[in-house]
Amino acid sequence: MPNPMNEQDWKNLWQESATDLHVHYHADQLEAELNQRLDKVSQQVNRRNRRETLAAIAVGMVAVPLSLIMPELLARIGFAWMALYALGVLYVIRKVKQTQPDTDLEMDQQTYLTSHIHYLKLERKMLRNVLWWYLAPAWVAATLVFMGVSSTWQEWVGFQVFILAMYGWILRMNLKAAKDTFDPLIQDLEAQLSQFSTHEA
């Protein structure tokens, strides 16, 4: 016949149960906080993508006819390059957008975390590489157009100073967003994925 549990046994059992409840509550709370952060970042990214998409469409609609009617050869080349640049921006945004996880679909925890980490890393890569896929092609197009229509070297220098200052600000803001918004969120998701994998093992 098993020995009856004494008072200390009951206390130990209660403490273990309380600890388990606290751990589960903490995990659920952490998951809810991560979901809120994911939703907030996704909304910000979607708003940015809509703005960039509309801007690229507008640039393309303006650049195509100007590439045909401008009298200066350099200006026509610049506007043609600008139209191609707009198409490139649309392509990059759409390509990354296609990797965004569908929150309406049910998926297991590991797939949920892995898919969001992959998507967020691509968005972060866009921000970190904004100089090469977004700013540099636009600078080439704008420079060609301005060289075609500008009459003095002073105007050209002033234009370059303005463009470089504006691009420096845009680059700084994108790198800051990658560091302050995406880096911590990706690290937290990877930490939770690691804990989940350890628990499953």
**Outline:** elongated
Largest sheet: none
Intertermini distance = 37 Å
Percent range of helical residues: over 70%
The total of beta strands comes to: 0
Order of helices and strands: HHHHH
Residue share in β-strands: under 5%
In terms of structural class, how would the helical and strand content be classed?
Answer: mainly alpha
- Overall radius of gyration: 27 Å
Oligomer: single chain
Output the number of helix runs. Answer: 5
Q: State the low-pLDDT regions, or none.
A: 9-26
- Average the pLDDT over all residues and give the rounded result: 83
Please describe what this structure looks like.
- By secondary structure, the chain is mainly alpha-helical.
- It starts with 6 loop residues before the first helix and ends with a helix.
- The protein has five helices and no strands.
- It is elongated and about 70 Å long.
- Helices cover 88% and strands 0% of the residues.
